[in-house]
Amino acid sequence: MESAPGGNVPGGIALVRFPVAKYEMPRAYYQGHRVMLVKRDGEWCAVVGIPLEASPGMHALTIQSGPRKLSYPFKIEPKTYAVQHLVIKDRRKVEPRPADLKRIAEEAKIIGRAEAHWREADEVPLPLLLPVKGRFSSPFGLRRFINGHERNPHSGLDIAAIQGTPIRAAASGSVVTIGDFFFTGKTVFIDHGQGLITMYCHMNTMDVGEGRTVERGQRIGTVGMTGRATGPHLHVSVILNQTMVDPVFLLPPLKEPLNK
Questions:
Q1: If 0-12 CB within 10 Å is exposed, 13-18 middle and 19+ buried, where does residue 91 land?
Q2: In contact, 121 and 193? CB cutoff 8 Å
Q3: CATH of domain 83-250
Q4: For residues 102 and 40, is the Cβ–Cβ distance under 8 A?
Q5: N or C terminus: fewer CB in 10 A for the chain?
Q6: How far is the CA of 164 from the CAs of 105, 131, 222, 224, 260, in angstroms?
Q7: DSSP state of 131
Q8: H-helix or E-strand spanning residue 113
Q9: How would you write the pLDDT of the chain (260 residues) with one tens digit per residue?
Q10: pTM confidence score
């Protein structure tokens, strides 16, 4: 067992290894969700996204190979994230109206389907490319208070940049969903295989359509401040096994690549 940079913490990534010879063509699951598997040094390595709400302590990865199911334990260490207070001038983005709530509920279904998308892939393009050059303005995991009201923790990395700055695909993949959503504004989801999804939010323009194949570094749109935003920036989220994880864990430099 080993951990990705940052350790086995809520919002982090656990790397759980087991022998290839014993499990040809296995599947791995955590909390009922399919987990990415890559081969490293003659072993399987499960790349497990850990939810922010995960409790510290021992957790279990389920390995299924044919009719056999075995459990592999891994430990999650505690981590405390900082608090951020924001002021949003558009009160509707803080206290949505009934019609807004209906829209938000419908959009949540679309976003949930995008986050749950799974495409089989022999290789996964890691590490990821930083989608835009700029200042890291808000890190992942911040406990957020907006206009004095506690809201969900920050589920991505905010990169401040001038409006219109090109946004690049973090890795090759296919566009599974695009939309203009109440909170995240103009948003693109790219599937990179085996449950690895990147999400790009608050865009000014979107230059790709659903179903389109994109290459690593390809322009997919420009930086904006659509949706709930206090200024122009890119919010990028990384999703593993339907779980938002800190993007910096999969950005260079890594101690060693996950794919060899």
A1: exposed
A2: yes
A3: 2.70.70.10
A4: no
A5: C
A6: 30, 13, 5, 7, 36
A7: S
A8: helix 98-115
A9: 344 545 799 999 999 988 866 666 799 999 999 999 998 888 889 999 999 999 999 999 999 987 888 899 999 999 999 988 888 888 888 889 999 999 999 999 999 999 999 999 988 998 999 999 999 999 999 988 888 777 888 999 999 999 999 999 999 999 999 999 999 999 999 999 999 999 999 999 999 999 999 999 999 999 999 999 989 999 999 999 999 999 999 987 644 334 43
A10: 0.91
| Tokens 């103009």 belong to residue | 186
Where in the chain do CATH 2.70.70.10 domains reside? Answer: 83-250
Helix H or strand E encompassing 145: strand 143-146
Q: In what order do the strands lie in the sheet with 149-150?
A: 83-86, 143-146, 149-150
In angstroms, the Cα distances linking 65 to 22, 25, 34, 114 are: 9, 7, 13, 27
Residue pointed to by tokens 């940052």? 6
Residues in the chain: 260
Q: Token pair of 131, please? A: 């989608």
